[in-house]
Amino acid sequence: MKKDNTFIRLLILFLTFLKIGALTFGGGYAMIPIIEEEVTKKRKWISEIEILDIIAISESTPGPIAVNTATYVGYKVGGIAGSIFATLGLAFPSFAIIFVISFFYKDFMQWKVIQAMFKGLKVGVIILLFSAVLKLKKGVKVNVIGIILFVIALSIMLVFSFINIGFKYLSLCLILLGIVTGLTLTALGKMKEEKK
Amino acid sequence: MIFFELFYTFFLIGLFTFGGGYAMIPMIQEQVVGKGWISESNLTDFIAVSEVTPGPFALNISTFVGNTVGGVFGAICATIGVILPSLIIIIIIAMIMKKFMTNKYVQGALAGVKPIVFALILSTALVLLIKVIFFNGNAIKGDLQFDIRSLTLLIILSSILVIYKKTQKKNLGAIKLLGLSALLGIIIFTI
Known about the structure:
The complex is a heterodimer of chains A (196) and B (191). By secondary structure, chain A is mainly alpha-helical. Helices cover 79% and strands 0% of the residues of chain A. Chain B is built from 7 helices and no strands. In chain B, helix 6 runs antiparallel to helix 7 (174-190). Classes of the chains: A mainly alpha (196), B mainly alpha (191).
């Protein structure tokens, strides 16, 4: 009897996140209100206060925000199996939809109209990236160390692109630089003004 | 082996992505274009498709790249790769570190990472802009191919965005923006 309950719980988790995955566009932040609605109001799995903590943790741990949130909620509801079911549910629609699209993609690209459409989309993506930068800017606290890190990372990225050095681990190294700098300064007690 | 390569590549990308979707674009670019899996220009197309289809951007782009490089099994490997770091890290946090967010080292590391992520996205946007306007979407080398149509579209779209924000008091959503750029693209690039 108990086994059945567990199974049904996992199935509902899978289906709930399948729905969330199928109904949201763009991921991450776009997904948060829908996750909140499903998880706190409809299913009442998690309190409204707790979900805010979960989202905050998901935003600041490695990995896509949507995947992190699904994993966390899944774990709270059904342990490790729950986290796996929730994440797989979330991934399933992406997988199925993109899989179908990639079948047609090559043939589609032969058409002049589609080529023109994608040229337009490229410009759209550029604007999206710039607006993502503007949105991020609001959340960043300005301090000397932050500015130095920002300038270093930006200069290195731009120089590498312009002289065409293809280094596959460039952004990864820069992120590591950020982590190491942050940790070192904390250990030295220089990050205290960062709190609050 | 290509499947292990895919898994490992997307595992790394998942592990070093902070702040979701856009933050992973520079890394995907370096890895996927660097390994010769997909051309720079195709990847930008993929990014647009991943953005306008349902589901988290990160999962869409992983499936797309995985499928192009290694078929269904490739797509599965890439998706599992990008998910696995989240699964492991979040489960550990949920299990043992309840005070995770208030830990001063976590705060310190995040304070260091944020400006870097900010710079990564900004540089990706700048470089992509230059590539599209001056190099026909390809890498920055060789002859200049100034693209007046892309520049025109960029100006039109930016103006629409600004006007929308001024009049509607909110940002134009990503889907609407991309829908608009697709439509205007068809008009501008076919005449």
